User: Fold this.
Amino acid sequence: METLPPIARKFILHWGEMGVRWGINRTMAQIHALLFLSEEPLNAEVICGTLDLARSNVSVALKDLQGWGIIKLVHLTGDRRDHFESMKDVFEMFRAIAIERKRREVDPTLRLINDCLDDSGKPKASDAYVRERLESMKEFFELALNFTSQVERMSTPSLVRVAKMGDKALKLLGLMGG
Amino acid sequence: METLPPIARKFILHWGEMGVRWGINRTMAQIHALLFLSEEPLNAEVICGTLDLARSNVSVALKDLQGWGIIKLVHLTGDRRDHFESMKDVFEMFRAIAIERKRREVDPTLRLINDCLDDSGKPKASDAYVRERLESMKEFFELALNFTSQVERMSTPSLVRVAKMGDKALKLLGLMGG
DNA sequence: TTTACATTTCGTTCTTTTCCGAAATTTCCG
DNA sequence: CGGAAATTTCGGAAAAGAACGAAATGTAAA
Assistant:
């Protein structure tokens, strides 16, 4: 950590805290930040050394980060050790995270809501309100899901273009959607 | 908990787990789910009883949920105790959460990135790549921030309309944005 | 103002999660 | 194959976070 430029150190620490707030652990987020800021792929040894973590811990975190699809394993010629590099396009990176969170959390939630709604085979009167709330949540998730699946299909440059249009885009759609 | 319809119990439990995954604690998320599914506002006492939690714990969670702007305190005539009800419009609810997360996490991150970029007063050669990465992240966050601030200004019904257009909306914009 | 009820604060305990390090396994070069 | 290097697994220690409950504070009706 002391070997890093202060500017990098500061960011890595902050990124770690953000990780915690989003249900990712500190270590994983820090490793990700380190790789993101690193020009060359790093091996596990270097990561332990820099961030002062146990080797095993780093190993697990790297696996996990690969599962999120935001870092990938690369082999450097003449070096037996695995090296890792982060996605560098920030836009792509957040898109990958979003897709993965959808898969891990939104999809199961929608399934559960459907289960709840099916399950109550004999619709008791007391359930009426609960069912109504769940229906409305289901509707929301389905809409969101449908929308994001469209977004996934778009290329990053198109999305950036839309985002840059900002209010112009939304106004346009707001008017035409009527 | 045993007093609840099974359908509600199931959802509350799941919502609690989702909370954990998103950096919200289980208790808070469960209380939120309970209020969301409840037709009438509930008081703290009832919440403890139903979810089997300590009174103090519930008190803190309720404060916290109010801070997120997704539940609010209401007074029932003839009852001295505070009662709480959840926002019921799911769309509005997630919008409130998004706005709050932006305020708590995205804004500070952007500030930190700016700090990093300013701080390194004497731009050392070794910082060059790090600065470049931070710049690109800054660009992304600014774009996202700008976009969401536009979204915040839109009415919920307009947003729903846009979302329902799905790919049609995006295609339209994708074509026009060129 | 008193008093009874309601809420919050705060230090402690308990649970969960993270992290470590030794041992086992895998990989791949000779 | 044999063996050195690298990685992963796994049980337990350490740290962090959540939840408790007693005491303090606040509140509003009498």
Q: What stands out?
A: Residues 25-27, 53-57, 60, 80 of chain B lie near DNA strand D (CB under 10 Å from a C1'). The radius of gyration of chain B is 22 Å. The CA atoms of residues 28 and 131 of chain B lie 39 Å apart. Chain B is about 70% helix and 5% strand.
